[in-house]
Amino acid sequence: MRIAIAADHGGFALKNKIMEHFKNLNLLDLGTDSADSVDYPDFAKKMAYTILSGAADLGILICGTGIGMSIAANRYHGIRAALVYNREVAKLAKQHNNANILVFGGRTMDEKEVISSIEAFLNSDFEGNRHQRRLDKIEQTE
Ligand code: RB5
């Protein structure tokens, strides 16, 4: 599985920590590359195109709170971006929502909890059935 990661300045430090922890997964780094101020919608867009084109199977987006990245990423049809705040929610984001982007808050979330949440997501499976029916309804939304 190819995993891409991107952040704005509010998520830059956490992005580095995640990349360091998961270096064996060879994450595809879409930036930003410094703590200088940038606009999170630019990185949400880059990530959405990366996922929708098939260049990556899963994305990790980080801004200060995770809220801006969530709002921006979910504007792209086919993106299911989940703002994940603990391990249990991470599991459910896979099992029920089949999320293709995980979003975290670099200024609001604990590094260890974030890493544990990513692991929980990667070790879970989508349950399909009624959950697929619900995702289909979302996809039909204009
Ligand atoms: C940037 O200062 C901050 O607004 C951004 O990282 C994010 O938290 C927005 O939702």
Summary keywords:
globular, five-stranded parallel sheet, alpha/beta, 142 residues, 15% strand, binds D-ribose, 6 helices
How would you describe this protein?
Strand 4, helix 4 and strand 5 form a beta-alpha-beta unit. The chain has 142 residues and is an alpha/beta fold. 37% of the residues are buried. Strands 2-1-3-5-4 form a five-stranded parallel β-sheet, with helices on both faces. The model has no long low-confidence stretch (mean pLDDT 98). The chain is 43% helix and 15% strand. Bound molecules: D-ribose. The site of D-ribose has 8 residues, from helix 3.
Count of helical stretches: 6
Weakly predicted, low-confidence segments? none
Sum up the overall morphology in one term. Answer: globular
N- and C-termini, Cα separation: 30 Å
Class from secondary-structure proportions: alpha/beta
Give the cofactors and ligands.
D-ribose
Largest sheet data? 5 strands, parallel
Give the helix proportion (percent range).
40-55%
Give the topology, please.
Blueprint: E1 3-7, H1 12-21, E2 28-29, H2 40-52, E3 58-63, H3 67-73, E4 81-83, H4 87-95, E5 101-105, H5 111-122, H6 130-139
Helix pairs in contact: 2-3, 4-5
The site of D-ribose has 8 residues, from helix 3.
Q: What's the short version?
A:
The protein is α/β, with parallel strands linked by helices. The chain has six helices and five strands.
